[in-house]
Amino acid sequence: xxxxxxxxxxxxxxxxxxxxxxxxxxxxxxxxxxxxxxxxxxxxxxxxxxxxxxxxxxxxxxxxxxxxxxxxxxxxxxxxxxxxxxxxxxxxxxxxxxxxxxxxxxxxxxxx
Length: 112
Prior knowledge:
Layout (H helix, E strand, L loop, with lengths): L1 H19 L5 E9 L6 H11 L9 E7 L2 E4 L5 E3 L14 E5 L3 E8 L1
Parallel strand pairs: 1-2
Antiparallel strand pairs: 1-6, 3-4, 3-5
């Protein structure tokens, strides 16, 4: 289950940030998760809750925003929301480049 490794990374980032900012408690951690990130949020939440016991993040809420899959046409430059199987621009037929939707990162950390 790669969600455990992801949860460990999130907690490490949050604890490091809290330590550098002399925070006693982490309130909320916000993530950006792209459509193609492959993260199962239920599994991630379960893994995270098992890791935070006894840490400054013990009562932290883990939240996320899903980032849609976005593409840009190599020929006409149009940017639009796409599906994983969309390789061609619907306007000109040019090849599409993925420009968003693979994100998997900590967006913010709220702490006291």
